[in-house]
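Quarterly update from the structural biology core.
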Amino acid sequence: LLTSHFSLLFSQSLIDCPTTYVIPASSYSVSLRLEPAGGMIGLIGISPFPNFSFGISWGATGVIGTGEPASMGNAAVQARYRLADSPISLAFGIDYQKYLSEPKGVYGVIGGDLQGKVIPYIGGNYHEKGGLFGGIEAGIAQGTSLVAEYSYDWESENHLLGAGLRWKFEDILGLEFDFRDLLEQTDTGINRILKITYTGFL
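Predicted structure, tokenized:
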């Protein structure tokens, strides 16, 4: 049973899908995602003023392990603007980083904060073809929450389901372990990723 001391650990994404959260004004975030096949994706974001953030990301496969590293493509840009805040939040943005599925491209997402214990999200996106996504974050203990997401992409025709566990320390350092493609819709099947995120102020 969720109780009042269980808090949400708001993040800019569930697993791969965006949320309505924007890092505080005059802050920055640095994230590292350890992906399958020895892959790594680095993301750097900054918020110059309230409710707006932008950033850039780049990744490569084979960084860890054997063989030659290979770029995942050109650096990708992200930007987000939040139009409304709690209890109902609304945000629009762009994200051209490819993860297991195609990039989200242009998207809109709505979130609803349920007394600081659970927050569901639902959104839509367009990148060459449209897509739908949704998910939830639920606090289970102080500094710990569960996340889950589902997305459907008309371009790849994949139904992707994922779930993960998130920790946050002193509101600046986050650690997350996720399982993606639980429905085994892709060639890789169920895969695991690790996220490490640091948030600081300018």
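The first strand starts at residue 27 and ends at 35.
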